[in-house]
Amino acid sequence: MPVTDQPTAPPTSRVLPYFCLGWVVLGLGFNWPILDVGVASMPPLWLMTFRLLGGALVGFGMNAMVRRRAFIHRRDRRIVTVLGIFRLFAIFIFVFYALRILPPGRSAILVWTSTLWTVPIASIFLGERMSRLQTSGLVIGMLGMGVVVEPWELSFSEPRVIWGYLLITGAALSAAWTSVYIRGHSWTASPLASTPWQMLAGGVPAVAAALAVEGMPDIQWTWAVWGVVTYQATVAGPIVVWAHLTALRHIPVVPVNLTLMATPVVGLLASWWWAEEIITLTLVGGLVMIAAGVSANIFGDDHLRPHRSGMT
User: Fold this and answer.
1) pTM to 2 decimals?
2) Which residue among 6, 50, 255, 261 sits deepest, i.e. has the most Cβ atoms within 10 Å of its Cβ?
């Protein structure tokens, strides 16, 4: 094959997964300060309902635009339901209520510790052995989590803050155990076809919970509120779910997870810029420690392969 000095563009089939991965990082990172505005403007359960049911409609529309049928095979229905309820519905409850208490940037960092929690959970329930590197990474990551929480600044006279940290930890644990649950699943449905069904599976219990707990919402529909809801139902919802699944099916798991490490960094910087969150050396130090722990977890896995997850 002749050598040429002219640069050649990579095939679209190779460019698209990396574009999708970058979209996930930016879409989820910038979403943290946007969510902070959302939970201050409406009840969290209704924000979750708009995100999931609106996202389901957009997801079905995305399938219609490319003239594909959003069909789910029987073997995928159980895992789609699990992802919808325990990875979307449950995590959103934890995160949205926690954001009423905690700063968005700090919350983004703590949710990201879900990668660390998957190691001991898989060891207990799947019998997977932890390597020395993974054990070291878990210890470093947990220490980093402690630095981010700053327990020396907590006061038991303010249980609301402690409750916020428990909620955000619950979100990380929910993301972790569902990742372990779906580790061995082989999808029949395409990422685009499965996306709206996951969001619908989470949206049905979401609207039921919103009506039961909060009743009909009294929302002041400003342009900012409309923007928040639109972003949740499009960019942060079905588009990110589809993009993440697409990246996982075409890119090895190591570069995917290493690239996703940029998400809490984007979330922290976006929160500093828009939500005026104060970035301290302690917070940055904790983020670096967690990043080191996650890296050790990834490189310490001897059986790396893409997970067909529905993480958002």
Assistant:
1) 0.78
2) 50
